[in-house]
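Supplementary Note 3. Input sequence used for the single-chain structure prediction.
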Amino acid sequence: MARAYNSHSDAHSIMRRIARSLLGLLIGGAAVAAALTAVVVGGYYYVEPGLPHAEQLRDVQFQEPLRVYSRDGRLIQQYGPKRAPVDYEEIPEVLVRALVAAEDDRFFEHIGFDIPRTAYAIVNYLIARGDERPRGSSTITQQVAREYFLNQEVSLERKFKEWILALRIEAEFTKEEILELFFNTTFFGQNSYGVAAAAQTYFGKELGELTLSEAAILAGIPWGPSIANPIYSRENAARRRAYVLGRMRELGYVNEVEYRAALAEPISGERHGVEMQLDAPYIAEMVRLEMLRKFGDSAYTAGLKVTATVDSRLQEAAQAALRQGLIDYDQRHGYRGPIRRLELPPVTDAKEADGAPDGAFDEERLREALADYPPLVGFEAGVVLHADAVQAEVYLPSRGRVTIGLPAVAWAAPQLNEKGAVGARPDEVSDVLARGDIVRFTTLEDGSLQLAQLPEVQGAFVALDPSDGAIVALSGGFDFYLDSYNRATQSNRQPGSSFKPFVYSAALENGFTVATIVNDAPITIEDPVLETVWKPENYEKRFYGYVRLREALIHSINTASVRVILKAGIMNTVRHLQKFGFDEVALPPNAALALGVGGVSPLELAAGYAVFANGGFRVTPYFIDRIENAAGEVLYQAQPAFACGDCVEVPAGDEEPALIEDVTELYPPMRLAPRAISPQNAYLVTDMLHDAAGPGGTGARARRELGRLDIAGKTGTTNDLRDAWFAGFNPDVVAAAWVGFNFNRPLGGREQGAVTALPIWTAFMKEALEGVPERTFEEPPGIVTVRINPENGLVASGANPNTIFEKFRIGHLPEREPDAAFPTHDLPASPEGPATQPREIF
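The predicted structure, written as discrete structure tokens, is reproduced below.
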């Protein structure tokens, strides 16, 4: 019976036996050469027909990362493989020599593969056992062939393919072009593809800045990219560097002095890379997700360049304002204690008495303990070595042993409970710090240290261009790398009184004027469905009696606002507010809507306020301005709908601009935003918000600190002080700030929009409006200013000395006080007659 066998494995077995016999009998003889020739010729004809042509490399597309830039050209983030293709002329000679010495010293002489090395490789392959297959021996050209056309399988067939492709590549490309391909495509570890990306990753340098030592390190990495790079192992990198430098010395590329100097150069295991020029991680993540949605995984490798709408100056101002605001809140609510306490050996009394160094000080141990607490947002962790009444000695990895005094911990009154109770301010340093405490510090502008802690409270900030909805600044939390949840876009929090301007806008469309009198008195509302009774209260726990609508908004009077929505009509109000873009989550159909009990994100609130800022148009927020491919061709250009009061209005399309390839189609005529409310309505609400941000208003601090009049805005504080808001604008920018806890716990006593959120908004606007000329809020046609009696909201008679000026829409004036000497026909009026308003609404 014929024996069944595996032809492939038996052929290898036969070839191994033949090779061993030949080696045993005819080493150095012609038979070996003949046998090898037969193997090569046979292998060639076996694999050649199915191989690709080398000219395909002419069309190769390098995988390049997705890059995100601000609108003024600053790099925010990049995603995907680190790669930066370079031309051969940009590669320094020292790097070329290092690579040739390490990988292929006969590169400039051989035909694609090195015959002696190839013969050696074949023999070794045939005589080695299956689990001891030798690797290596490939020339640079062979490695290029394998990178583009083959895989990492260890087999004789793959080797044949590699040789043939190497020959084809050598016939198609010059040696310099082959090296360019190698340098641009080889994996150098740590997600770095190509030598330019590797130089940035490991040294933070351009290729032309590399030292001989650094060039040798890079040239040694392709041997084992994952284990020979200096970030993974400085020891492995040093061994490979020594090998490369030794080969360079043998080949005469460097002399003895250069060799020894490079060998002695320290190796850093730090991670470098392309420097991010703008801290905007929340926007970067929004872009990444959108690119992934549109392009799939190819978004990471197609070399897309995305220009976001954020402005670097405004983004930096927003990030700094939000962080400082949250730190300020956190410090107002006390010190929570050390991160951890490290057990340190006691210091002897003798050492303390004579001031000698701490014998228990073990820097290596302290570094190891602090390794679990890396620097975050400018906060560095340190260990307290000693603390007494006057000072403390602290060890910081970046500074060593440092002495601090009472000013460094002066804010750190102990936090007594989560409700905001705080103990007394410290009188001594030792009231706050103790030996072994691991705590964080921040460096102040004068270089001094201050005790710090990561805030538990969170916040968000967003700023828009009201003319088209472009997001010019956005931060979704204290730090993206601690918590990537984007509260600016993803949260749904109660806006509180910051929502009242929309309710008052609805009131102006349903029978009210800014002078309408509302009775701020206790009110009880029964809910027959839920069988509950609701008694809204004012923040100050008092009532103001009869007030004008303007006063009710300026002073944020809750019960008056509830009466307004009941009189205007709840569903009338809901329908009006839908025009601002608010959804059902934001618009619960009940009287509590007047107090902002729905859910909105800071972005949604800012977009709503943009309607007032731009004269009544609903703009759609957007964050991507342009997308280009790796060749610089524009794939997408944002086509926002603009607010334009002087333009001829045309129907605005609801569809989003699609990604298109034809650049000639990118610039259609300007799209106009749909009108949400009349310009007169927008102006009257803006005028009330202008007063709310002025003296006597809840947002008075805004105008006082900014020192300019073109500011309008409104505070917001929710029930039990769980959310604090400020939203406001000038004609050029609209912004919203929110502060609260992730799990919706109260912020604590006295924390409200004016105290907690307004300072964040003000700090941002101070930078945003720096150098921007002051602009008045433009009054549209159809507005008239008349004198009224502030006591009853009616147009004042000529005999009344107690009058103020008020603004109204023409045709929506209140009645005039009776006065025969001053007839009402002197005033503008509606064709249907004056809009009579009762003295008391409800």
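The CA atoms of residues 615 and 679 lie 5 Å apart. The longest helix spans residues 312-332.
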